Amino acid sequence: MKYHLISLGCQMNASDGERVRTVIEQMGYTWTEEETEANLIGILACSVRQNAIDKVYSKIAKWNRWKNRSNLITFVSGCVLPSDHEKFLKLFDIIFQMKDLPNLPEMIHQYGITTPNGIQNGFDTHNDNITEFWNVKPDYASDFEAFVPIQNGCDKFCSFCAVPYTRGREVSRPSSEILAEVRSLVGRGYKSITLLGQNVNSYGLDKPDTEIMFPELLRQIGEMGNQLASEFWVYFTSPHPRDMTDEVIEVIAQYKCLAKQIHLPLQSGDDKLLIAMNRKHGLEKYRQSVTTIRRLIPEATLFTDIIVGFTGERDEQFDATRAALKEFNFNMAYIAKYSPRPGALSHRWFDSVPLEVKKERHQVLTEDLKLTSRNYNESMIGKIFRVLVKGPAKHEGYLAGMTEGKINVRFLTDNTDLIGQIVDVKIKSATDFSVEGDLIN
Question: Which of 122, 241, 325, 437 can bridge 281 by disulfide, Cβ–Cβ 3.0-4.6 Å?
């Protein structure tokens, strides 16, 4: 029996997929790259983005047509809004929440019963059983990069976001399990480890009497790095500006294994728009955090998320976002055109910015980003950087990788044994979003 699994959306879904694969393969299924060969096909959905949810409906329509000629079971999980959940019940054989993953084998054996049970029970966003999910050992997709979930859910309720309605409220994973998984990964030679959560820097706030807070979690990982001989980089995503403290930045500056790259979502450079987004932070709070980062970790790269065309965004508010992007000199910004999502508060509001305006603003901001990114990349020329080699580059005869600051690098070599290793590369040229260099033996 063969299975195929598709993960859409963010890194959290990708990480969840590694645990899903473990459960399925323990049932005796083997992986296939070809959907047409599979007896079991699943998809981890993302209700946060319209194009991602559209892809789910496209896929299941195709798979259901195949059932006329093959014995096929389909399932869906991941970030699913209640409105999509109701529709999926009529389209998929099985729909479950990630916290119920340990029960998937029983669902597959009795999939004809699972769907009506789902209709009776409705959509539950409580995370009471998430610990059982975390106890599933992941089937890591890479031999040198890994995602480690440290929490699930979100308590922020940004007006544009559906995550609190798809993943429930914040629940922190026991720090003992996180530290054990990180130590195990390092012992197995992993070079890049990313701590995952919807709001990683609010880790532990739901368990103030029994759990450590995020700065202490980073500190203990940093001490682990000091004790171990291996070179590895630990990242985290995504933090919330409201909870980004100087202590977190101080800890990152102190320990070598804590990667000098910070992803801090801005979303908008206009305070009134941030209030409408219910972000609970203003531009000045964000500026204070960036100032501390630049002072304590001057070598750090800075990534962000920005939404253009949010409901009511005026030209002058978009200009404020452009100004913020230039002020903070982001190395990378993941720019999204706003689209209302059912379940999120802003879905009730009139989407007042035309699509063409959103596209134009997206293009303008991308051009601004090219300037800030390229300026940094050109400053790398002539310097030697440690680079994690990730695989073949698009150009034949080259390998590609990333610096500790997650800057894309390519260099000429045919030695594929370097994949998964950290090497020295001297940078000789730069483009908008990448650099090229020479391998230093």
Answer: 241
CA–CA gap between residue 311 and residue 349 (Å, rounded): 7
Give the CATH number of domain 293-379.
3.30.750.200
pLDDT digits (tens, 9 = 90+) for 17-47: 999 999 999 988 999 999 999 999 999 988 7
Q: pLDDT value at position 180?
A: 96
Environment class of 397 (CB within 10 Å of its CB; exposed 0-12, middle 13-18, buried 19+): exposed
The rounded distance, in Å, linking the Cα atoms of 212 and 160 is 30
CATH class of 142-259: alpha beta
Alpha carbon 430 to its chain centroid, in Å, reads 26
| Residue of 42, 47, 51, 109 lying closest to 84 (CA atoms) | 47
CATH number of 384-440: 2.40.50.140
Cβ contacts of 150 within 8 Å, gap of 6 or more: 172, 173, 178, 195, 196, 197, 200, 203, 217, 236
Evaluate whether 127 touches 165 at the Cβ level (below 8 Å): no
Higher-confidence position of 141 and 162: 141
Residue 303 pairs with which residues in a beta bridge?
263, 332
Task: Provide the residue ranges of all domains of the chain, joining segments of one domain with +.
Answer: 2-121, 142-259, 293-379, 384-440
Q: Write 181-186 long-range contacts (CB < 8 A, 24+).
A: 181/148, 182/148, 182/221, 182/224, 182/234, 183/224, 183/228, 185/146, 185/148, 186/224, 186/225, 186/228, 186/230, 186/232
Minimum mean pLDDT among 15-19, 124-128, 142-146, 309-313: which range? 124-128
Paired strand residues for 148: 195
pLDDT at 404: 98
Cα separation, 316 vs 384, whole angstroms: 41
The pair of structure tokens assigned to 423 is: 């090497």
pLDDT score for 126: 54
Q: How far is CA 226 from CA 160, 232, 260, in A?
A: 41, 11, 16
Residue 5 burial (C-beta neighbours within 10 Å; 0-12, 13-18, 19+) = buried
Could you read off the pLDDT of 247-287 as tens digits, one per residue? 999 999 999 999 999 999 999 999 999 999 999 999 999 99
More confident residue, 311 or 341: 311
Is it true that 142-259 and 293-379 share their CATH fold?
A: yes
What DSSP string runs through 398-426?
EEEEEETT--EEEEE---GGGTTSEEEEE
Q: How confident is the model at residue 79 (pLDDT cuts 50, 70, 90)?
A: confident
CATH superfamily of the 2-121 domain: Response regulator (3.40.50.2300)
